[in-house]
Amino acid sequence: MLKKRTLVVALVLALVLAVGLSACKQATPTPSAVPAEQMGYSEALTKAMEAAKAGDAQAAQKALQTALDAAQSDADKAFVNELLEDVEKGDLDEVVEDIARYLGTESAPTLAELLDKAMDAAKAGDADKAKEELTEALEVAQSDADKAFVNELLEDVEKGDLDEVVEDIARYLGTESAPTLAELLDKAMDAAKAGDADKAKEELTEALEVAQSDADKAFVNELLEDVEKGDLDEVAEDIERYLEQQASQLPSDEVARAQQLYTQLGCFACHGAEYEGNQGPIIVGLPVQSIIAQVRNGAPEGEMPAFDQNTVSDADLELLAKYLNSLTLADTATVIPDAVRSHLEMAYDALKAGDKAGVETHLQAALQAAQEAGAGEGLVKTLDDMVEDLEEEDWQADIEIHLDILLGR
Ligand code: HEC
């Protein structure tokens, strides 16, 4: 009995001592037995932030002194000293912001986490809880756009419009992590290759929502139509080409450099200022390696000069070749008369059927139609070269590339 009482007395004494000690160490006594250093720092900062928010400079200063005593690292001490200076200057807003940011990055939940909680609360119809989370989110929000967004959500909560809140947060969080157009198209391509029309349609429907430009939307819509028609091979091929082109798109400074090279080296004189061809053929969309080889070797009979390393470096030539490869017929000033197009389409079908004689017939017909229609010199030269290419061993691959380019496939 006696022992127990002694123990209690000792405990109380120890507690008093601990509180007394921390009171000596700190400006404000802390009401718990947790070591002052640990509990003090962020708590004191939070207090300082609240005081600063309330416009109470004195209380803020006091709390910051506490924080300064509790600060362990030099960085923390420097941070608090800066805050103290801001208080001296009367810059309480700055203090609030800096502490909020500090606490936010330190351990506080992120904006996304708080929004997620607010969404859950709104879903559950708990307006109070949603408001609480959003109020915290407002403190954590950094950019003006984020703050405006959270404020709008708070207004909706006030209006009792919890469904709206759920939707808006879902959309906000969704866009943060939503798959990109390229990712969705890639999945749709895999599905199409696997012959799974339903899955392809699903991915494409999502892709349609993600697509931003009119061109992208039109492209996805076309793919959806092809899925409806059961044309899955076409879908897979079109997506593959699209993704390849995306991957080969150059940053604008490289495009500018490539265009400069095209002019400086004089390619434009024979291949057209707008890539429509001239005495030389249309050269957009060709494989990078074949462009490089052609430029280094030139053309037989001196129709095209060879360009050596002194004239154009390997790096520059590769850039130029990549750029030309990234262009399509639509980027050129080429006009293909209807009569020419239909012969090219027939040549394409013949090619697919392995019918070389048919390819020759239709290419000859296309060439003749181009001449009769007064088509551009570049197109005529391109078709003429294609007829000649038939004599080469790997005519099939060569003709296919050129037909793909001319038919925009
Ligand atoms: C003096 C005119 C002339 C100049 C300058 C010229 N080319 Fe050519 N180029 C031609 C001609 C003509 C052909 C077709 C050769 C043939 O019929 O075999 C050709 C063919 C090509 C081909 C092959 C096309 C195909 O269908 O396979 C490429 C690629 C090419 N040129 C790129 C370039 C580039 C890049 C430049 C600038 C660095 C350039 N050319 C400068 C005249 C020129």
Question: Can you walk through the features of this model?
Answer:
This protein is mainly alpha-helical. It has five domains: 15-106, no CATH class; 111-177, no CATH class; 181-247, no CATH class; 252-331, Cytochrome Bc1 Complex, Chain D, domain 2, CATH 1.10.760.10; 338-407, Four Helix Bundle (Hemerythrin (Met), subunit A). It is 74% helix and 0% strand. The chain has 21 helices and no strands. Helix 4 runs antiparallel to helix 5 (92-106) and helix 19 runs antiparallel to helix 20 (377-389). The longest helix has 24 residues, at 2-25. The site of heme C has 20 residues, from helix 15 and helix 16.
Task: Spell out the key features of this protein.
single chain; 409 residues; mainly alpha; 21 helices; elongated; binds heme C
Helical content, roughly? over 70%
Class from secondary-structure proportions: mainly alpha
How many separate structural domains? Answer: 5
Order of helices and strands: HHHHHHHHHHHHHHHHHHHHH
Helix run count: 21
- Amount of beta strand: under 5%
Cα-to-Cα separation, first versus last residue:
97 Å
Mean pLDDT: 87
- The parts where pLDDT drops under 50 for at least 5 residues are 15-34
> Biggest β-sheet, characterized?
none
Are any ligands bound, and if so which? Answer: heme C
The counted number of beta strands is 0
Radius of gyration: 36 Å
Please state the overall shape, judged from the principal axes of the Cα atoms.
elongated
